[in-house]
From TrEMBL, chain A:
Residues 187-208 have a biased composition (Polar residues). Gene3D superfamilies: Amidase signature (AS) domain. Pfam families: Amidase. Residues 22-145, 222-337 form the Amidase domain. One of its GO terms (biological process) is mitochondrial translation. Residues 175-208 are annotated as: Disordered. One of its GO terms (molecular function) is glutaminyl-tRNA synthase (glutamine-hydrolyzing) activity. This is Amidase domain-containing protein. GO terms for cellular component: glutamyl-tRNA(Gln) amidotransferase complex; mitochondrion. InterPro entries: Amidase (IPR000120), Amidase_dom (IPR023631), AS_sf (IPR036928).
Length: 346, 544
């Protein structure tokens, strides 16, 4: 289930092969298990369950009325987008207890389309960063870390505290370590202490799954940033779409590091109402999904003029239509010639 | 010595030149005033220059950039939208009514509307400014230039006033946000912040330094208040804070370059505009004549001591770090020829649409009164200023038979007096217009005297259902104008040798000697004009 795309999930939800409540539970459980990756600052378990319940009711209605575009789809929002149901901290002590009295337009449009809010994802503090390493709840760890650690490399790249890449020769791994690492991304490993905040501690997933953990604190890879939590959330299957923000690459960067699709819409297409700003004239909400088609579906749901954001374009929004028979024939791709300094690794 | 009418200066107003309480006659005082003012002006040939920054709260239902209400007197912090409290993630949304109000005001002030204007952030830190910056229009304001023709009323010696037209040019008109209100509790050493006012739209009108002194500035402010109230964009109540005036004052000697200017804030009434500016001018004269220098500073007007004082913490020149407001696109005021087609048409501000809302401005009405009815400027000013009076005037002049002077006398002296005594407007006053008309006619035909008028109007206020004529007859106030009767009584009075002796001496004393007993005999209702005529005739015949 975790490897389904949003489009595929929508199909299965509509025809009954999947139900929203089950999907929601799986995502919440997974988020719980992978809490050591530090993807979420807060998870809205109770709210998500209620929304999933409602989504199921709407999906099972046999009437002719139009179904909502994203009924039952789990979504995560970067913690600089305001949500009424969850604290919005921007990964900073300044807003640690801040509960906005309103929803960001992106949030309300998604919820109105039937999406299920699973949680608020981790980021660089106030979106200032490109590694998702400078957060008061700790850095976000790339879900692919474990996959790469499966094969002991002679040369390995480790992240140090500030998220910089450093060349390092790897020590010989013990047999246990190899065993552990062979298991791959989606299985459990030995315990660790770090975990993210859960809003309703009573609702533990409690199905016997162990929490994922790391051998030592520095044994992980960065997600990139500043929307690292959102990219990791989609890459690890805890949400089918996540919203980040993009000012100078903050959605595209982590999407690339986490192996998922990151879309930075043109400024003025999506509303910034409720997006706590970094640079008002450059910020946009970003969309992270597994495939480009998923991104198009979500973009078509949330794009368009918002009265509450005077910088959104007033022309009526023309929904994106992707060509089925996509081909690169005739497409010109430009690659800038960049000079690299000798000390940098590649 | 010519016949002098003795008039007393009321005790509470000392002579403005020598600060003494005089009780001389009108003429004596007039001479004294002329002498003293000559002395004052020759002592120092200082010229004062005054410019004003007027902040007028825009009278719209909601604030400039948010939907919170602007109603006056609401409970503390009950009209605060998330944007007004600068909650993270909120954005400004421009209020179209505010823009139209700004454009309407600019048109009334004769300004040139900028088709494109821009918003900026002006940064400074204060507890009543949650965002840490005020959104204003520094680079490109809504409107430029313009001028106001206002009536300057000089209160002359005694009761006389003269009116003349003056002009003050404007620099610009811009839209900006108001800040919240801070109440400093010195006892508990805390400041309490009320954000109800934060974000309310303001129109800032900046004048050229064309004004001369306190009275000049006060007249100008009164005219602006009247204009704003007439077009309905601001209620102009300085006591409620919907109109605030900051004054920039400097002095220089004739022919020399202008001096350093100081700014005076915290002026909360039109009278205080005059007092604050005059005090500041005198203070600056004092400083310079004692060899000191004027600092470019901001001072606060203390209404209790009538002085300007240094504001405690505002000495350095602040760097406001102006930057364009990134969350608001440029503001367009379209003319009906170049409105862009497509969606958003309902939210476009079109100049001609706003222009159609312009009512008759006070200046136009004053001109009409002067030309159509021959009303003098001062009277025209009063008619236009007092709410509702103009309508009464026009309806009473409608049939064209009323005597203008009498009507003006009744309306502007006695009727206004009654309104002020009962603290009501012309609209609220129960006296019927018809009754007022009757009163004018009675006065014009000398059926009642001036003193009767002063008794009649209050009585009509109490009993508006009774007509004026009816009331006069009821109270038996009609003047006796029967010449034969009066002559008879006069002759009776003159049969008294003592009275006759006094009359033969002549002069005012002689007249009074006869007038007294005659009025007594006739129940004080004899027409004094007729009595005087007859007595003077008799006197003339006597001296032949």
């Amino acid at each position: 289930m975790a490897s389904l795309t949003l489009k595929e999930t929508l199909v299965r939800l509509r025809d009954g092969r999947l139900n929203a409540r089950e999907l929601c539970e799986r995502c919440l459980a997974r988020a719980n298990k992978l809490s050591s990756l530090n993807m979420y600052i807060s998870r809205t378990e109770r709210g998500a369950r209620q929304q999933a319940e409602r989504a199921d009711q709407c999906l099972h209605k046999s009437g002719q009325e139009a179904k909502k575009a994203l009924e039952g789809i789990p979504v995560a929002f970067k913690d600089n987008l305001c949500t009424r149901d969850a604290p919005t901290t921007c990964a900073s002590r300044m807003l640690l207890d801040y509960r906005p009295p309103y929803d960001a337009t992106m949030v309300s449009r998604m919820l109105d389309s039937g999406a299920v809010l699973v949680g608020k994802t981790n980021l660089d503090e106030f979106a200032m960063g490109s590694g998702s390493t400078d957060s008061i709840v700790g850095p976000v760890k790339n879900p692919w870390t474990l996959l790469f650690q499966k094969t002991p490399h002679r040369y390995r790249f480790r992240a140090n505290q500030s998220g910089c890449c450093q060349l390092e020769t790897s020590p010989k791994l013990s047999e246990d370590e190899v065993k552990v690492r062979r298991r791959g991304l989606h299985t459990s490993a030995s315990r660790l202490s770090q975990s993210s905040t859960v809003l309703e501690p009573a609702d533990q997933s409690g199905s016997g799954l162990q929490r994922l953990s790391f051998e030592d604190d520095s044994d992980w890879l960065v997600t990139g940033g500043s929307s690292g939590g959102s990219a990791a959330a989609v890459a690890s299957g805890t949400a089918l779409v996540a919203f980040g923000s993009d000012t100078g690459g903050s959605t595209r960067n982590p999407a690339s590091y986490c192996g998922v699709v990151g879309l930075k819409p043109t400024y003025g297409l999506l509303s910034r109402h409720g997006l706590i700003p970094l640079v008002n004239s450059m910020d946009v909400p970003g969309i992270v999904t597994k495939t480009v088609e998923d991104a198009a579906i979500v973009l078509n749901t949330v794009a368009g003029h918002d009265v509450q954001d005077s910088t959104t374009v007033t022309d009526p929004y023309q929904p994106v239509q992707l060509d089925d028979r996509f081909s690169l024939e005739g497409v010109h791709i430009g690659i800038p010639k960049v000079k690299y300094s000798s000390s940098c690794c590649l | 010595m010519a016949s002098v009418v003795w008039k007393m200066l009321p005790l509470r107003n000392p002579c403005k030149f020598c600060a003494k309480f005089h009780r001389p006659s009108q003429d004596v005082f007039a001479r004294h005033a002329r002498r003293m003012s000559k002395k004052a002006s020759s002592k120092s040939d200082w010229q004062s220059v005054v410019g004003l920054e007027i902040h007028a709260q825009i009278n719209t239902a909601s604030k400039l950039f948010s939907g919170a209400s602007t109603k006056f007197g609401a409970p503390i912090n009950s009209q605060v939208a998330p944007f007004d409290a600068a909650l993270p993630g909120t954005l400004p949304v421009l209020n179209k009514d505010c823009v139209e109000a700004g454009v309407l005001t600019a048109l009334a002030l004769g300004c040139r509307i900028n088709q494109v204007s821009k918003f900026d952030r002006k940064h400074y830190f204060y507890a009543d400014l949650p965002a840490g910056y005020q959104i204003t229009q520094q680079r490109q304001p809504l409107a430029c230039d313009g001028q106001v023709n206002y009536v300057h009323v000089t209160s002359g010696a005694g009761q006389t006033s003269t009116a003349e037209m003056r002009t003050c040019r404007l620099i610009q008109l811009q839209l900006e946000q108001d800040s919240g209100k801070s109440l400093h509790d010195h006892l508990d050493k805390q400041s309490l912040i009320d954000l109800n006012r934060a974000g309310v739209g303001l129109m800032e009108v900046v004048t050229q330094p064309d004004l001369r002194d306190g009275e000049d500035a006060a007249s100008f402010v009164k005219e602006v208040q009247l204009l704003l109230r007439t077009i309905g964009t601001c209620d102009g109540k300085m006591q409620e804070g919907s109109l605030r005036v900051d004054a920039n004052i400097s002095i220089h000697k004739a022919g020399e370059p202008w001096g350093v200017r100081t700014e005076v804030k915290n002026i909360n009434s039109v009278r205080n505009v005059s007092k604050a500016i005059d005090f500041e001018i005198q203070r600056q004269i004092g400083v310079l004549e004692n060899g000191g220098q004027i600092e470019k500073e901001t001072r606060s007007f203390d209404a209790e001591s009538n002085e300007t004082v240094q504001m405690r913490d505002k000495e350095k020149l602040l760097d406001y770090r102006f930057m364009p407001e990134p969350n608001l696109p440029p503001l367009h005021v379209y003319s009906s020829g170049n409105v862009p087609p497509g969606t958003g048409a309902g939210s476009n501000v079109v100049l001609e649409t706003v222009q159609r809302r312009l009512p008759d401005l006070p200046g136009t009405i004053r001109d009409k009164l002067q030309h159509k009815y021959d009303v003098p400027l001062l009277s025209a000013t009063l008619l236009v200023t007092e709410e509702g009076l103009l309508d009464i005037f026009e309806s009473l002049m409608a049939d064209g038979s009323r005597d203008l002077k009498t009507l003006l006398n009744v309306l502007l002296n006695d009727y206004i007096g009654v309104l002020h005594e009962h603290d009501c407007t012309a609209a609220e006053c129960p006296i019927r217009v018809q009754s007022l008309g009757e009163v004018c006619d009675l006065l014009a035909s000398r059926d009642i005297s001036q003193s009767t008028l002063q008794k009649l109007l209050p009585l009509l206020f109490e009993h508006p259902e009774v007509g004026a004529v009816e009331m006069v007859d009821r109270e038996n106030w009609r003047q006796i104008r029967d010449r034969e009767l009066i002559e008879k009584v006069i002759n009776e009075v003159l049969s008294n040798p003592k009275v006759m002796k006094k009359l033969q001496k002549g002069g005012a004393r002689g007249l009074n000697a006869v007038m007294g007993p005659v009025q007594q005999a006739l129940d004080r209702r004899a027409d004094p004009q007729i009595v005087t005529e007859i007595v003077e005739n008799i006197y003339k015949n006597l001296s032949k």
